[in-house]
Amino acid sequence: MSTSVEQSPDRAFSCVEGSPYRFSTDDFYRMVDLGILPKGNRASLWDGLVYEKPPKSTAHAAVGSALLMTFLRADLQGWFPSFDNSITIGPDRSPAPEIAVIRGVPRDYLERRPDAADAGLLVEMNDEIIKNDIARKRAAYASVGIPAYWALDLDRSAIDVYTDPIPSEGRYASVATFAPGESIPLILDGRTVARFSVAESLVLRQHSPGN
Amino acid sequence: MSTVDPTLLETPGAVSRPDRPSVEPVSSPNDRPYRFTADDFYRMIDRDIFPDEARVGLWEGQVYEEMGKKQAHSLSWSKLNAALLPRVPPGWCLWAECSITISPDKAPLPDMVILRGVADDYDGRRPVAGDIGLVIELADSSLKIDTGAKLVAYARAGIAVYWVLNLKDNVVHVYADPVPAEGRYASTTTIGRDGSIPFVLDGVQVALIPASALLPGR
Hints:
The structure holds two protein chains of two kinds. By secondary structure, chain A is α+β, with helices and mostly antiparallel strands. Chain A has six helices and eleven strands. Chain A has two domains: 12-52, no CATH class; 58-206, tt1808, chain A, CATH 3.90.1570.10. Chain A has helices at residues 4-7, 25-33, 58-73, 131-143, 198-201, 203-206, and strands at 19-20, 43-46, 49-52, 79-83, 99-103, 119-125, 148-153, 158-166, 171-178, 183-188, 191-197. A six-stranded mixed beta sheet of chain A has the order 4-5-6-7-8-9. Chain A has a two-stranded antiparallel sheet with strand order 2-3. The longest helix of chain A has 16 residues, at 58-73. The termini of chain A are far apart. By secondary structure, chain B is an alpha+beta fold. Chain B has a domain at 71-213: Alpha-Beta Complex (tt1808, chain A). Helix content of chain B is 19%, strand content 29%. The termini of chain B are far apart. Chains A and B meet through α1, β1, α2, β2 and β3 of A and α1, β1, α2, β2 and β3 of B.
């Protein structure tokens, strides 16, 4: 007796027959706008499949807020931080990174979602993330030319900074790890517009032992 | 620090195309598959999220697309339709490839169903388990699922009678007397090409159909 549905791991897609239906980003946004998918960006699209983010851990929520404040305080010179919002990075991929630094002003995006060409930096939290998955996701960001990708690792209290995407190879040519005590340059359009203290970004985590 | 992660080599540089064959779905980090309800699914259909030609169903909250059919499947479907249609008694109607809601997160697309009443009774509403007298699946590559997970779900929903036309072994499996709490049918019969299949609706046998009238072969 087939128990393929029960046997598959929780995170995997499984279908009783045939193959999973793959939605386009257009389908995905229509479903969000029609209210079929919950608003609030807990859903994302990856390779045409809809995923739901689990609720954020306490530390994740706090660090995410601290991070957002860090970006809001900086003068991003023609860019703005978008917090936990969808971004189109392909015909069937629409992740919602923790922070996306987007060109222009929010008003520019009343009628359309930001896409890869609008993004200067994506920031994601690395807690609980399975390494293969994050590598694939990072590869996808590099392949569409997202200029920079920061992975915040709450367990290591460090930020991995990936820059110099090589789209044809789906990878970033440069990676550097920043620890508390160091500061990360925020480079947009080739200019360093701000420097962020890692300690400031991860301050809540450091002050919450055992969390 | 190394800049080349081995897993990157598995990922093509170009962005994915929606039409690529689905093999191992790539998981999005940290996230779980989103589970749609049957209501969500029908809203997607009604709002034209799917192209008209898409043959989609919902299973455990996930939308799936049915595979293309083998020739034997189409042939058997044609015979089934021809054999069944004249034998459907008044008060029942035959629907092909119709979505049925069998639980809040399951809306499969069986090959054929016999529904209570007339077709117009379903104008504006979707058939649910209580409307269904008989569900028929044509199974070749889907045999394991049709006699496994699907059978369990149909029994749980209380679908009275379920036929699986087993095109692999050229037999018909007839399941009746569902035990919903246990997800099984109390009565299971396998009928070969030489046998006949009792066509039973609401516990009344309305016809006896030769299996050879349904299965491929003269």
